[in-house]
Amino acid sequence: MRHDPRTRDYVARRTLEGLKTKDIFRCLKDFVPREVYRHLISASSTEPSASTAT
């Protein structure tokens, strides 16, 4: 919440909507696994699989 510009913008927007820091943090914790999963899927689709490397 301190370093990433996207997160700071999100926190500012949600604060203006009336959410408390605790609620914003809960929303961010829901978002992080989805973001990580998306990166893992895209990384695995760009790497060759073990069966095609032989």
Q: Which blocks of ≥5 consecutive residues have pLDDT under 50?
A: none
Q: Which structural class best describes the helix and strand composition?
A: mainly alpha
Please report the number of helical segments.
Answer: 2
**How do the helices and strands follow one another from N- to C-terminus?**
HH
User: What's the number of extended β-strand segments?
Assistant: 0
In round numbers, the mean pLDDT is 86
Q: Cα-atom Rg, whole angstroms? A: 17 Å
The portion of residues assigned to helices is over 70%
Form type: elongated
**Percentage beta strand:** under 5%
Termini gap: 44 Å
Main sheet makeup = none
**Quaternary organisation of the protein chains:** single chain
